[in-house]
Amino acid sequence: MVAKQDGPTGPSAGVVEELLNRTARIATDWLASLDRRPVGESASVDELRARLGGPLPTGPVDPLVVVEELARAAEPGLVAIPSGRYFGFVIGGGLPAAVAADWLTSVWDQCPGFYACGPAASVAEEVAGGWVRELLGLPRTASFAFVTGCQMAHLTCLAAARHQVLRGLGWDVEQRGLAGAPPVRVLLGARRHVSVDRALRFLGIGRDSVRVVPADTDGRIEVPALRRELAVEDVPAIVCAQAGEVNTGAVDDLAGVADAAREAGAWLHVDGAFGLWAAASPAFRHLVAGAERADSWAFDAHKWLNVPYDSGLAFCAHPDAHRAAMTATAGYLVQGGPGHPRDAMDWTPAFSRRARGFAVYAALRSLGRQGVAELVERTCGHARTFAAGLAAVPGCQVLNEVVLNQVLFRFGDDRTTDQVLRRVVDSGEAWMSGTTVGAGRAIRMSVSNWQTSDRDIARALAAVQAAAVGVGRG
Ligand SMILES: *Cc1c(COP(=O)(O)O)cnc(C)c1O
Q1: CB 237 within 8 A of CB 187
Q2: φ, ψ for residue 256 (rounded to 5)?
Q3: What is the dihedral of CA 4, 7, 8, 10, to 10 degrees?
Q4: Is the pLDDT of residue 7 over 80?
Q5: Does the pLDDT at position 260 exceed 50?
Q6: What is the mean pLDDT of residues 446-452?
């Protein structure tokens, strides 16, 4: 945004200042309302269309009016995701330093695909990437990319895996593509996240190349079955393991998987979307032991690290493969060369992109090593307290072993379970989501927000209790 003094083409500097100050006020008012407002939205889709819709204006509208009316119109359709009482999916909040750095990211409007388009943004990514590597115990030489989320991190990592595995067979996939390429197989646990399949699909690796390995009730891949499957064919393999199953939080036996993958000469990729952050806590690190032996790792900053959407990270133990799979160049670009330490374009699937490193940098710096460990430990503690509280709720059955921040529970049958969930969400006291697992319909609760307090957990438990009693009464 260029603020010109009395400029002919836009608002004056004074107007821009008033706009941004007013916006900050709208933002802080909303944050201040989180504790009292219902967590879910209060407007229907028709109401929201009516509030936000209408014809595209013919001429300009005062920016202050635009923003004030947008905020007013959107308000009843906002879900209080930053609230400590939001437990849906696996969704974090925004640490204050990360939110503020994210605002600056928009104002600075750097485009760090290339060092030349954002030197400070590039270096912030370099520093933050190094911090993450150290914090999670990943190899010092691992390369990395800041991407939109774990889905795109999978794409990045699995493109590197595809490059490496095919190169081992004398096939240059970047040159020759996949048509006529030697076969590659991908071994996935039965309870992997669907984003892995989609990343493979984008990479031209279809379902026929996938071998599904059974998993236990909480979703951990069965290592003996993985070994058997690896031994079936003498075809190069990519193995995907998981740290943090989306419903249960279960973590694969990563050391066992790493042994099996190494013996078979396979590439090991870890989906650690949220669970890999357990490595930052001395109390939970043992759960992900062996993760450091993988070849690539995909995870999120927007979930457990509480960086605002969107923010994901891809790390790769083989920088040459990573770079070969991602890099692109053209005559007009200013890549590499002296004084160009790192061009993100060489490592990400994106061309122009948001300077995501600033918010991750701010999150990590504001928490410090200890703060990240405490965030993991506190949220896992809340999940355990919640699960223990459920034991006192009539008819409630906790389905998972609560190893991390996820609780999965159910009430007798599918219908009752869905009714209880509906009532909890309608109460506005807490927001959770449903799922279907082996036992049938279930309610999943994820404590991923830095703000969730003991009181929030007590309110959520009271809401579940009231819903269960209400359903029991019909
Ligand atoms: C959320 C999640 C993903 C996908 O991450 P996005 O950031 O939404 O792309 C992948 N794997 C697991 C285990 C997840 O929980």
Answers
A1: yes
A2: -65, -40
A3: 30
A4: no
A5: yes
A6: 98
Q: Which residues contact 336 (CB under 8 A, 6 or more apart)?
A: 343, 346
Dist CA 200 CA 459 (whole Å): 41
The CB of 149 under 6 Å from ligand 1? The reply is yes
Q: What is the pLDDT of residue 116?
A: 87
Task: Look at the domain 99-364 and name its fold.
Answer: Aspartate Aminotransferase; domain 2 (3.40.640)
Cβ of residue 252 lying under 6 Å from some atom of ligand 1: no
| DSSP states along 397-410 | EE-S---SSEEEEE
Does pTM surpass 0.90? yes
| Average pLDDT value for the chain | 95
Task: Give me ligand 1 centre to Cα 272, in Å.
Answer: 8
Q: Atom 15, ligand 1: which residue's CA is nearest?
A: 246
Closest C-alpha to ligand 1, atom 2:
273
Is the C-beta atom of 244 inside 6 A of ligand 1? yes
Query: What is the per-residue pLDDT across 122-162, written as a single tens digit (0 to 9) for each?
Result: 999 999 999 999 999 999 999 999 999 999 999 999 999 99
List the beta bridge partners of residue 143.
316
Q: 156: closest CA among 384, 347, 372, 432?
A: 347
pLDDT tens-digit map of 17-68? 999 999 999 999 999 999 999 999 999 999 999 999 999 999 999 999 999 9
CA distance 141 to 159: 19
Tens digits of residue pLDDT in 351-370: 999 999 999 999 999 999 99
With a 6 A CB cut-off, is 243 part of the ligand 1 pocket?
A: no
Classify 373-473 by CATH class.
alpha beta
With a 6 A CB cut-off, is 92 part of the ligand 1 pocket? no
285 residue type, one letter: R
Confidence at residue 2, expressed as pLDDT on a 0 to 100 scale: 46
215: β partners: 221
Per domain, the residue ranges of the chain are 13-80, 99-364, 373-473
188 touches ligand 1 (CB under 6 Å): no
Q: Quote the pLDDT of residue 341.
A: 78
Residue 202 three-state SS:
helix
User: Any idea what the Cα angle at residue 211 is, between residues 433 and 144, rounded to 5°?
Assistant: 70
Atom number of ligand 1 nearest to Cα 275: 13
CB contact set of 350 (below 8 Å; sequence gap of 6+): 113, 147, 148, 344
**Atom 14 of ligand 1 has which residue's CA nearest to it?**
273
The mean pLDDT value for 201-211 works out to 96
